[in-house]
Amino acid sequence: MTGKMFGAPIPRTEDERLVAGRGRYLDDLGAGAYAAAFVRSPHAHARILDIDVGDALDVDGLVAVYTHDDLRGPMAEPLPLLIPHPAIRDGRTPHALAAEYVHHVGEPVAMVVARDRYVAEDIVERVRVDYEVLPAVVGVAAARRADHVVHPGMSDNVAARLLQEVGDAPAAIAAAPHTLELDLEIERSASTPMEGRGVYARWDAADAMLRMYSSTQTASGVRAAVAAKLELQLGQVEVVVPDVGGGFGVKIVHPWPEEVMVPWAARLLGHDVKWTEDRREHFVAAAHEREQLQRVRVGFDDEGRLLGLDVRIWHDNGAYLPYGVIVPLVTSTQLLGPYRPGAYRVEFDSLYTTTVIVTPYRGAGRPQGVFAMERTMDAIAARLGLDRARVRSVNLIQPDEMPYDQGLVFQDGRPLIYDSGDYPAALAALLDLVGWDDFPAQRERARAEGRRIGIGLACYVEGTGPGPYEGGHVQVETSGRVRVATGLTSQGQGHQTILAQIVADELGVPISDISVTTGDTRRMPYSVGTYASRGAVMSGSAVALAARRLRDKALRIAGDALEADPDDLEIVGGRVRVKGSPASGMDLGTVAVLANPLRYAFDEASRAATQFGGPADFDRPPVAPDDAPGLEGTDFYSPLRCTFASGMHAAIVETDPETAEIRILRYCVVHDCGRLVNPLIVEGQIHGGVAQGVAGALYERMAYDSDGQLLNASFMDFLMPYASEVPAVEIDHLETPSPLNPLGIKGAGEAGVIPGAAVLAAAVEDAEGFPITRMPISPSELFHLRRRFASGEIPPLRARRPAAPAPRPSGQES
Amino acid sequence: MTGKMFGAPIPRTEDERLVAGRGRYLDDLGAGAYAAAFVRSPHAHARILDIDVGDALDVDGLVAVYTHDDLRGPMAEPLPLLIPHPAIRDGRTPHALAAEYVHHVGEPVAMVVARDRYVAEDIVERVRVDYEVLPAVVGVAAARRADHVVHPGMSDNVAARLLQEVGDAPAAIAAAPHTLELDLEIERSASTPMEGRGVYARWDAADAMLRMYSSTQTASGVRAAVAAKLELQLGQVEVVVPDVGGGFGVKIVHPWPEEVMVPWAARLLGHDVKWTEDRREHFVAAAHEREQLQRVRVGFDDEGRLLGLDVRIWHDNGAYLPYGVIVPLVTSTQLLGPYRPGAYRVEFDSLYTTTVIVTPYRGAGRPQGVFAMERTMDAIAARLGLDRARVRSVNLIQPDEMPYDQGLVFQDGRPLIYDSGDYPAALAALLDLVGWDDFPAQRERARAEGRRIGIGLACYVEGTGPGPYEGGHVQVETSGRVRVATGLTSQGQGHQTILAQIVADELGVPISDISVTTGDTRRMPYSVGTYASRGAVMSGSAVALAARRLRDKALRIAGDALEADPDDLEIVGGRVRVKGSPASGMDLGTVAVLANPLRYAFDEASRAATQFGGPADFDRPPVAPDDAPGLEGTDFYSPLRCTFASGMHAAIVETDPETAEIRILRYCVVHDCGRLVNPLIVEGQIHGGVAQGVAGALYERMAYDSDGQLLNASFMDFLMPYASEVPAVEIDHLETPSPLNPLGIKGAGEAGVIPGAAVLAAAVEDAEGFPITRMPISPSELFHLRRRFASGEIPPLRARRPAAPAPRPSGQES
Question: Where is this region: Disordered (chains A, B) (predicted)?
């Protein structure tokens, strides 16, 4: 199955186009379309008293202004709750245009359609909305207090609550020789892809068909959602995803209010309509992630072995819950990492606030989970005076325990069972790579120079490639060109390259003959989407299976024509040939001609095929039963469970004794995503992930004031790291193949970001000698922590507080 | 398999739309498109010396003028020879725009693209073409003489020549007790559908995709041809066929010059382009049919039993041969009808003339073949003084001889084997229906009143539903709506109705829940086309097979959910239910939800399905191996051979003794197209066919002068019968099911037209008492024949000439 391309670090085939500026993004489409712009709430929480569009009506170029009053049927109802998980107590979702209340700054209140965007924005300014301003609820603490309730009809702000238990954790902790309790906090950040959201819709009245282009991570999800909202059959909606300038999770939400309003208006107006998000809109009206408060209670033995772990999570899901419960679900199940936790109890509250919605952002709850677990590991080591790597080591699941059942229900509702992995080997490799054992000497040398340096490590296990399925379609044209399609979308990950690599090997064709289409419901209507590091696992497996079907068919047809047993044939360089007799054979394009009993005398390929005509067999139908014309293969990959990729990061940092500036000296990664399709792309994914991990640990945060105004809603104020802040990343690959899929691969897209906050907190803590419990951390924050540590307000690492008595039973506390 | 809908004479579901004027034809599309118009040759044969577009360039609204000099690559080469049959000696095809020569009036020389059609036509007038006029070659006789050769480089005008033999016909004739020789002639006519041709093309530069709409009988053929000409992959071309206002064969040609020029220009200009044919263009630049000269030599015994039959055919294929050889191929093989011919020899020459091309027109060579055979039968009866029905009867193939191998190679290259039929029963039914035995008394009564009446009959067998395949796709949406697609196109035959009837029964759903799409390569890329009465046989069978696959899947899924054996389930009214316990079940829409493990919480259907969720089985992948998400079924029907429908027509005519006006008193049809899907539609097809048969026998002809100018190229001059000229048609159905397909059906689309000329010639001959050998026949022609008969120039029926000695061997004569 593996050949020359699988595993080869070839440059990305799409880069010739993308890097040369020939990408085709949403805003490159729709010349001649009307432009949409949105009147958005300036308040975090308010009741709409009146909307006056009078001043807008005399603007030249106006096409229409819509408010909620213009919507009917499903369009007037709230947008769907995408994951109606039983943990949800009261699932509130936004309307396409606000009905009576607005619940965050930026919420769409009215839609303007105009000749062009300039006019549309001018008209937006002229729409007057009268609001009764209501109290904002900003942050987890305020949401828990519930002095103000976000949604009418609710008595508190708890959107969802879930408890999972394996064994009796409180009892195990109570009985443990040692206990600890930690309060931890991760702040809000967001995906901030280069390209914001965007939607372009064309209604073909004659065909009664809607064509939509959306900068989305799920073509099929948008299709289903828009069809339902617009009361169309699925078959009437085509969703095509052009090049997408990054997604990182924010574009998996569907439908966005704008994503149903634009096609709705296009149909109503009988004219193309387009909307492209601007940067401020993306900050205030797309989605954020990460914000959590965590309380960890842990019991352990003298060697640091976990006996009981009890984690309580308070999660800010923002104003609405279209998608949000997935994030604390992931945190609560995947924080276990490569460890056996002993008895385990985890409970989360997901809370409404009057801020923009929270949906998965690369890592999707895992960075928070890893922060909880790895901060705990470091705290145990400090308490016991043990080496931090040693404490991790005693808790690691061993290779011979695989597959390992954590006993929990995973985010997809299936059992949480790790498929494979060799965590001890990974830890050994990491310690070797970073020079863990040599670090004390290094620290001493630095100290002698008046420098503070610290080392940290963090481990994670990541469920990647969840089901239920993706499809692959592979077709050989009569020209010999190979067309590959899969339903999930690309946001720059290199899918075109790796899927072509896989098909090239399976079929024996040059990669230059292969073109790959993703995210186009015309080519593959059944699909799920690009998230949870599922591209390579799911679509890679699907196109491999589809290519195998095609290969079988090609060899059967060529065998008939060449009067050879298919087993005696091979495909090399796009040519089917008899093994050991390479001159005897035919091009795959010729096989494609032979695969269709309907011949057209149009082209060389058909003429070339005539030499293989042979005497016709009139007792055989031209297309055999259970066969089909054409040289195509379609198959679906549908796994029993997720694959579990894993990794361990170590970082060495230096903190400036005076300015408290934090500088990363080394950043080492040992990464295991099973078999590598393309090491160059995996390393690129890790580099990018580490960059976002560093960003989330040291720079990026959403600065809301207490009125719910986002104070840094621009790239002037939102502190994104430059290349100068991102460390060189040293990578060592482990490859423990997944037994769950035909290629043995696991997902790699999110990995790099996951342990970022945890490893940098550990390294800073190691440099400073006092606990780091809240990330991101800025130089000024570190400076103030030093002051509080110096004043005794913060205890030293070894003197942390033991676990309090077990908390009250679930459901009583919020 | 058969249920309530199959066989039911329900009104056509498409008529609510079509009859109310809500049809959507080619010219209803493409608002905003540029209009194309063509500069066409005014000469039948000429060399282009110069094209001067100078005067055109300053017209406001001009977009572009193209001539052959603007074409490159495949576009500059001649259009393809669609059926490269080995009988073709020199296959000439036109260019998209004439290169150096023009070979018929109306041939496209230049293409004008302008803001609208008015401007385009004005510009056409301003393009000056200098021609060197060359001699026209009009009609078979002129083509055979070859005083002038149509195509440079050829020494004569013989495009194709084919001989087929079973036994030694010349020897059998020479040895026969009786012989006859007949010279016969059929003139040119044409399809003249209500809607002419038309093409509308949209090039999507961003997608690099071409969408074409064409008023065609073959979406897939147009797609393949245009892809080849424009050097696109098949996957880059979508062809959608809107409502089509009649085709009758003329629209099976692909690509027309206009059909490649319009998309070529759309791509070049980056703008939609449309062309709609006007009526004069259709007369001079589309296609005609029928023109043949035939010489029949026959030997027979005292009872009229055929011993040897030798038929020589000279066929006018017009200026080019893109498709034309199929017509004489059909004539030469299908003239045998329901008879055993004894030894058989047939040879045709297909000849170039400087007239518009000849391609199949409803009946497609069969009317000419039936004319040859049935005129021969009548001549034998006259010679022997036997009853004409009796002579036919002794020659009929008997039911117990089925399947019957005529020993010839059929038009599709496969053996000519009749699948089923009961010809003696059909003849008995026809004689009974028309009152054959009572006619002599009726004739005597009329004669006593001074009236001349005559009776005639004609029999035919028609190969219908040739392969190689058609596909069917059936899908149940989660709403419960059923979408059916097949690749072949509709031109008003009622496919939407009969395919829905078939699927309704197979699936157990109400017909109102079914929508049918034809001729859309987006829905069914593999297809052949609508011709040769293949719609019901091929696509009917294909959708039935597809629906059975879907049904199996639906019962399996519902069985899982209901915990019932699929064999214990039935589908009634769109609901799967347990037999004998009808309250227990679920709607098909719910089954469609269950068929996709990816659930969206969007709609009622998904929520309704949750009650059938049951405990998840984590040891089973969400999509089983070899399964696929969704409730769909696709299958292809690919027959071993054609089905053979048959029929016998009888007519009673009255000829005015003074004016020679011919009036049809009765027209009786016994028709056998196997099992009837919808008798109303079959009868409509027969009525329409008879109308065209009567038209071809008595009214319609193409009046070319010797310069190749068509003198009657408008509906003012082309004599199309009104309803007042079309007789009431009395129909009796026989149903001998075809053993070749799952529904037992045979084609019915062309049947009505086939014996028209033969049966009316026979009836007129019977009324007049002298041979009728050339059709159509007008009152003035009949008047002149009477004069020639009275003068002794035409012999009476019994005194026809015996067969001459056997002609020279094939290949020597032309």
Answer: 794-814
For residue range A59-79, what is the model confidence (pLDDT) as tens digits?
999 999 999 999 999 999 999
Of A28, A620, A636, the CB nearest to B629: A636
Q: Quickly count: other Cβ atoms within 10 Å of residue A185's Cβ.
A: 16
Distance CA A461, CA B380 (A): 93
Q: Give tens-digit pLDDT for A245-292.
A: 999 999 999 999 999 999 999 999 999 999 999 999 999 999 999 999
Domain range annotation of chain A: 34-134+197-276, 364-466+640-799, 468-637
- What stretch of H or E contains B696? helix B679-698
Residue B680 contacts residue B574 (beta carbons within 8 Å): no
Do A364-466+640-799 and A34-134+197-276 have the same topology in CATH?
no
**Can you tell me the distance from the alpha carbon of A320 to that of A350, in angstroms, rounded to the nearest whole number?**
11
Q: Residue by residue, what is the 3-state secondary structure of B367-434?
A: HHHHHHHHHHHHHHHHHHCCCHHHHHHHHECCHHHCCEEEEEECCCCCEEEECCCCHHHHHHHHHHHH
What's the CATH code, domain A34-134+197-276? 3.90.1170.50
User: Alpha-carbon distance B22 to B34, whole Å?
Assistant: 24
- List all residues 6 or more positions away from B22 whose beta carbon is below 8 Å from its beta carbon: none
Q: Where are the alpha helices (DSSP H) in A185-325?
A: 219-229, 257-269, 279-285
Whole-angstrom Cα distance, residue A27 to residue A278?
A: 11
Is A810's pLDDT higher than 70? no
Look up residue A178 and give its two tokens: 């040692």
Return the SS3 of A585: strand
When scoring B636, B637, B641, B642 by the number of chain A Cβ atoms within 10 A, the one with the most, hence best to mutate, is B636
The C-alpha of B305 sits at a distance from chain A's nearest C-alpha, in angstroms, of 31
Q: Which regions of A256-402 does DSSP assign to beta strands (E)?
A: 273-276, 292-300, 306-318, 343-352
Contact A628 B597 (CB under 8 A): no
Cβ-proximal residues to B329 (8 Å cutoff; 6+ apart), any chain: B85, B87, B162, B348, B365, B411
What pTM was computed for the model?
0.93
Q: Which CATH class is domain A468-637?
A: alpha beta
**CB contact, 8 Å: B619 with chain A?**
yes
B562 burial class (0-12, 13-18, 19+ CB within 10 angstroms)? buried
Extract the residue ranges of chain B whose pLDDT is less than 50: 1-2, 811-814
Residue A478: list chain B partners with CB under 8 A.
234
Q: If you ran DSSP here, which 8-state letter would residue A762 be given?
A: H
Q: Could you give the CA distance from residue B712 to residue B105 in angstroms, rounded to a whole number?
A: 13
Residues 6+ apart with CB under 8 A from A94: A78, A79, A103, A107, A257, A319, A320, A322, A357
DSSP state of A451: -
Q: CB of B484 within 8 Å of any CB in chain A?
A: no
Among the CATH numbers 3.20.20.360, 3.30.365.10, 3.40.1180.10, 3.90.1150.10, which is that of B166-172+183-189+288-466+640-795? 3.30.365.10
CATH of the domain spanning A364-466+640-799:
3.30.365.10
Q: Is the dihedral of CA A194, A199, A200, A206 positive or negative?
A: positive
Q: Are B228 and A602 in contact (CB under 8 A)?
A: yes
pLDDT digits (tens, 9 = 90+) for B36-74: 999 999 999 999 999 999 999 999 999 999 999 999 999
What is the value of ipTM here, to two decimals?
Answer: 0.91
Choose among A224, A481, A629: nearest Cβ to B602: A224
Q: Is B709 within 8 Å of chain A by CB?
A: no
- Cβ contact A624–B638 (<8 Å): yes
Give residues with Cβ within 8 angstroms of A676, minimum separation 6: A7, A682, A733, A735, A745
**Regarding the domain delimited by B26-134+191-285, which CATH topology (the fold level of the hierarchy) does it fall under?**
Aldehyde Oxidoreductase; domain 3 (3.90.1170)
